[in-house]
């Protein structure tokens, strides 16, 4: 130990001790740190991860939902084989989810970004426009389904009246399996556009104005400035939009269930999971296998998101 001639600690040691004491947490700080970090962790583990792991486990059993779970047998991947080879609604449902994903990317994402760019220019009444476009987001998909029912109704609907389709020529937009998926996608896109607009508007507000000014001084047009300068800078927002869009597409359920319980052309995986676990023909292991497949598809995009976030933090 380095001491002075008088036997007291050297100044450098005093400074280190002082800094060490200043970084120590008090008992109260540790308590609140545990509470603020521990409670959310317990909630996430208890309400998300444990049910997810239980679902995966149940998907490999033959539990009938009535007998004790201990009487069930391990059947391996048999339920997954039944889902993919002996369950006709599965592949149409997967196809509908992919169509839902493609349309959500092609229409509301592009439209939401376009509206955000316009509103970022501080147009007159821009706050009113923001509220109007964001209003559908606060509505539940079930309510959206009822609202669009007034438009799509075969006999009293607004759309058939505008198109002049009456009598035998009237189209049952929700009932015809050839068109009902596209009709539902229009309603879902109407709601999703406001959400995407809000995300991109927040991203545009965070872009450094000097980047636009430098591009303008170089003679770049507004379109070229956006796609060459602004859009790459908003990479974190683009990743969030990607993940949000994928999750919204995979968990599509409310809207189709309100319309016809996910049947007759509106099969989606979420509705199949619900009908097998909660419906009349309850098959919990079978529905758990469907839910696990949906979870695995979601994990692919979640992993992509996490990798991108970690790369951003390393920069």
Describe it for me?
By secondary structure, this protein is an all-alpha fold. It has helices spanning 11-23, 27-58, 78-85, 90-119, 126-134, 141-152, 158-163, 180-206, 209-217, 222-233, 235-250, 254-260, 269-277, 284-314. Helix 4 runs antiparallel to helix 11 (235-250), helix 5 (126-134) packs across helix 8 (180-206) and helix 6 packs across helix 12. The longest helix is centred in the first third of the chain and has 32 residues, at 27-58.
Concise overview:
By secondary structure, the chain is mainly α. It contains 14 helices and no strands.
SSE arrangement:
Blueprint: H1 11-23, H2 27-58, H3 78-85, H4 90-119, H5 126-134, H6 141-152, H7 158-163, H8 180-206, H9 209-217, H10 222-233, H11 235-250, H12 254-260, H13 269-277, H14 284-314
Protein name: Carbohydrate ABC transporter permease
Membrane topology: Multi-pass membrane protein
InterPro entries: ABC_transporter_permease (IPR051393), MetI-like (IPR000515), MetI-like_sf (IPR035906)
C-alpha termini separation: 41 Å
Percent strand equals: under 5%
Give the ordered list of helices and strands: HHHHHHHHHHHHHH
Report the biggest beta sheet as strand number plus sense, adding barrel if it closes. Answer: none
Mean pLDDT, all residues: 84
Total strand segments: 0
Low-confidence stretches: 1-7
Question: Which geometry do the CA atoms define?
Answer: flat
Helix-strand makeup class: mainly alpha
Helix content: over 70%
Q: Rg, please?
A: 27 Å
Number of helices: 14
Subcellular location: Cell membrane
Organism: Angustibacter luteus
Protein name: Carbohydrate ABC transporter permease
Domain ABC transmembrane type-1: 94-305
């Amino acid at each position: 130990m380095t001491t002075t001639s008088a036997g007291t600690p050297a100044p450098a040691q005093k400074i280190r001790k002082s800094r060490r004491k200043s970084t120590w947490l008090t008992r109260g700080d540790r308590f609140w740190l545990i509470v603020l970090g521990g409670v959310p962790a317990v909630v996430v583990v208890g309400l998300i991860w444990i049910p997810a792991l239980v679902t995966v486990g149940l998907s490999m059993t033959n539990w009938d939902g009535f007998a004790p779970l201990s009487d069930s047998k391990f059947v391996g991947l048999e339920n997954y084989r039944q889902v993919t080879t002996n369950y006709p609604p599965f592949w149409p449902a997967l196809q509908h989810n992919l169509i839902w994903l493609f349309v959500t990317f092609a229409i509301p994402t592009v439209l939401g970004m376009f509206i955000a760019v316009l509103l970022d220019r501080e147009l007159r009444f821009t706050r009113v426009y923001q509220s109007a476009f964001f209003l559908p987001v606060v509505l539940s998909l079930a309510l959206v389904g009822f609202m669009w029912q007034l438009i799509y109704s075969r006999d009293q609907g607004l759309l058939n009246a505008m198109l002049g389709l009456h009598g035998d020529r009237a189209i049952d937009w929700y009932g015809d399996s050839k068109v009902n998926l596209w009709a539902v996608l229009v309603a879902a896109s109407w709601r999703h556009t406001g959400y995407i607009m809000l995300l991109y508007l927040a991203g545009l507000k965070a872009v450094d104005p000097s980047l636009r000014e430098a591009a303008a001084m170089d003679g770049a047009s507004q379109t070229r400035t956006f796609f060459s300068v602004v859009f790459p800078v908003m990479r974190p927002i683009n990743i969030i939009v990607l993940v949000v869009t994928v999750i919204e597409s995979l968990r599509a359920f409310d809207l189709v269930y309100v319309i016809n319980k996910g049947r007759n052309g509106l099969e989606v995986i979420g509705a199949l999971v619900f009908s097998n676990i909660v419906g009349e023909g309850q098959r919990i292991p079978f529905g758990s296998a469907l839910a696990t497949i949906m979870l695995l598809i979601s994990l692919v995009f979640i992993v992509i998101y996490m990798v991108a976030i970690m790369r951003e933090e390393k920069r």
